[in-house]
Each structure stands twice: as structure tokens, then as C-alpha cells.
């Protein structure tokens, strides 16, 4: 069965974006070391991306407006907006938990839960995230969009890996 992996960055105080939804603070402290690119390794193991409308909108309007940067992956955008699916992008306005359960049963590589916070919280609440790959950025935002909020019940996780790159601490946990 495919795994759903939340691969996301957050500030040391638990925010994934500032109050305006901006992520321009997502920097490490030093130049990238050769062979220390966890993102490149991560995307080799996925073929599907799962994201909310706000994440999609930020990518196409701010981060990469000239081209869709995830063209090699099937992308599901969870939205309340009625949109026609196009190429490798499927706009879905049903229950994200139901769709993810279906996708996890299909053949293929793992599924990247890309964001945002609301979608991640829904999937955490439904206990559908198998692995948490959290990059902790050495920044205290003080306010903004929190990654973790209230959950209906406690979740036990097992620490699988800790790495440090550019001052960023990467924590990888799996559901017990």
C-alpha cells in the first residue's frame, strides 16, 4: 500500500506561513552542501501530490507563475471551487480523506501531502498520514498559519531520522 507523507517546512514555533500566507522566510543558514538535498531524494519516491487550494494558488500566482513545477506528478488539488481538471492536475471538491483512502489503495509510488495546514489537519484527524517529514526552519515567526492544531485524539509517532542541513533540522516520524 502507498504511504501518505506530509513533507513540509515549519518555523521553530510551529508555523508554515506568516499571517499573510507568505513563505519567504524559508531559508537555511548556509549554502547547500553537495549530496544533502533531501527534497530531490524524497520526490524520487512519489508520483502523486495532494494539496489544498491555497497552496495551489500560491504556487501558480507567486512561487512559479510561469510554469507548473510539478508536471511530472499527478496532482490533486482539494478545493471548494468548481474547476475543470487539466493535464496532470485534478481539482477535487469532495472529502479529501475519502480520496486519499482510495489513492493509497491504488498501485504507485507514495503520495506527498504538500499542504496547506487545513488539509494536513483534516488528514491528521482522519489518521491517514503515514510519515511526517518536517523541516524545522531556524526562525521564530510568532504568528501566522500553524501546522498543528487540535486533533480528536493523541497520535503516537516513532522517530525514524534526524538530519541537519543549512541549519535546518529535518525530523522524520512514522505513525506507530
TrEMBL record:
One of its GO terms (biological process) is riboflavin biosynthetic process. GO terms for molecular function: 5-amino-6-(5-phosphoribosylamino)uracil reductase activity. InterPro entries: DHFR-like_dom_sf, RibDG_C, Riboflavin_Biosynth_HTPR. Residues 3-164 form the Bacterial bifunctional deaminase-reductase C-terminal domain. It comes from the Bacteria. Signal peptide: none annotated. This is Dihydrofolate reductase family protein. The lineage of its organism: Bacteria, Bacillati, Bacillota, Clostridia, Lachnospirales.
Amino acid at each position: 500500500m502507498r504511504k501518505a507523507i506530509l513533507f513540509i517546512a515549519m518555523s521553530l514555533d510551529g508555523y508554515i506561513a506568516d499571517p499573510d500566507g507568505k513563505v519567504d522566510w524559508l531559508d537555511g543558514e548556509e549554502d547547500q552542501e553537495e549530496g544533502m538535498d533531501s527534497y530531490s531524494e524524497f520526490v524520487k519516491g512519489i508520483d502523486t501530490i495532494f494539496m489544498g487550494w491555497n497552496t495551489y494558488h500560491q504556487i501558480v500566482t507567486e512561487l512559479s507563475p510561469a510554469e507548473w513545477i510539478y508536471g511530472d506528478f499527478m496532482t490533486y488539488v482539494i478545493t471548494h471551487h468548481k474547476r475543470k481538471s487539466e493535464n496532470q492536475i485534478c481539482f477535487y471538491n469532495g472529502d479529501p480523506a475519502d480520496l486519499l483512502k482510495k489513492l493509497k489503495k491504488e498501485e504507485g509510488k507514495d503520495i506527498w501531502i504538500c499542504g496547506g495546514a487545513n488539509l494536513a489537519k483534516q488528514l491528521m484527524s482522519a489518521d491517514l498520514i503515514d510519515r511526517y517529514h518536517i523541516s524545522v526552519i531556524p526562525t521564530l515567526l510568532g504568528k501566522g498559519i500553524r501546522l498543528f492544531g487540535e486533533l480528536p485524539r493523541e497520535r503516537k509517532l516513532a522517530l525514524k531520522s534526524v538530519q541537519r542541513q543549512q541549519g535546518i533540522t529535518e525530523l522524520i516520524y512514522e505513525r506507530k
